[in-house]
Amino acid sequence: MAITDPEYTDADFQRVRGIAKDVAGIFLPESKRTLVYSRVARRVRENAKASFRDYLDFVQGPAGQVELEKLICALTTNVTSFFREKNHFTHLEEEVMPALSSRARAGGRVRLWSAACSTGPEPWSMAMSIMSVFPEAPTYDVRILATDINSNVVAQAASGLYPEAETEGISLDMRNRFMEPAGQGQLRFAGPICGLPAFRVLNLNAEWPMKGLFSAILCRNVVIYFDEVTRERLWRRLADKLEPGGFLYVGHSERVVSLRECGLEQVAPTIYRKGG
Ligand SMILES: C[S@@+](CC[C@H](N)C(=O)[O-])C[C@H]1O[C@@H](n2cnc3c(N)ncnc32)[C@H](O)[C@@H]1O
């Protein structure tokens, strides 16, 4: 049977936009019309539907919950890399970890959060930074929460397995120290470092189950997909999750506008500190 292109109308695009916004807070501008087609057409075909309309009726129908999650995954953009925006990791090592390691050694609790972790280079880079200045961290109450709305990338992140070519941002010294060959040109995180990150699926624009506060939150290159209202609401919620003196790191093209409302002060172009 010939594979035909599923029918895709403006009304279908508007429906996908509505779903992305309502479920994930993701704003899809008009310029994404073709991208949406190419990403969602595959889901339409996999579900053996002839048109976007039939597919979206199914997604929004009583049996559509699982497919709705797959649709959201298909609409996310997961570009990432190890030690992306290196200055954040230098700041973490030099300005943040000295006090946190003293606290941990004294029996205190230390929590950091990679709030849109994608396939994992961000939380694994945080773990390597922490261990480079505090090698015994995994033996203390130090943990990195790593979350993303996309369950596929969270599973990949949790595996700690990467093609060697993707690990270029990691120094040779760190690769030798924290990773082992896993066959077929792949490397895998191994040893005590694996005790630091915990991976979970979490929608930043839904309820959060976490009760405690964080010393540092990396929420980078995700609010670029949200509209301004969603963005500012998220900054406030993240600021509420920081302990006094804690740090929020945002992407290079992102900015917290409502500093006073969030109780944050800017300490570098993309680094904010919670007051108190
Ligand atoms: C471009 S990646 C950024 C990854 C990493 N933070 C970095 O800077 O390299 C954006 C990530 O945000 C996630 N994302 C999009 N909307 C989300 C939401 N509502 N809640 C949680 N994660 C979301 C996507 O699944 C994707 O993995």
From TrEMBL:
InterPro entries: Bact_Chemotaxis_MeTrfase, Chemotaxis_MeTrfase_CheR, CheR_C, CheR_MeTrfase, CheR_N, CheR_N_sf, SAM-dependent_MTases_sf. Keywords: Methyltransferase, S-adenosyl-L-methionine, Transferase. Pfam families: CheR, CheR_N. This is Chemotaxis protein methyltransferase. GO terms for biological process: methylation. It catalyses: L-glutamyl-[protein] + S-adenosyl-L-methionine = [protein]-L-glutamate 5-O-methyl ester + S-adenosyl-L-homocysteine. Transmembrane segments: none annotated. S-adenosyl-L-methionine binds at residues 78, 80, 84, 122, 148, 203-204, 220-221. Residues 1-276 form the CheR-type methyltransferase domain. It is an enzyme of class 2 (transferase). One of its GO terms (molecular function) is protein-glutamate O-methyltransferase activity. Its EC number is 2.1.1.80. The keyword ATP-binding does not apply. Methylation of the membrane-bound methyl-accepting chemotaxis proteins (MCP) to form gamma-glutamyl methyl ester residues in MCP.
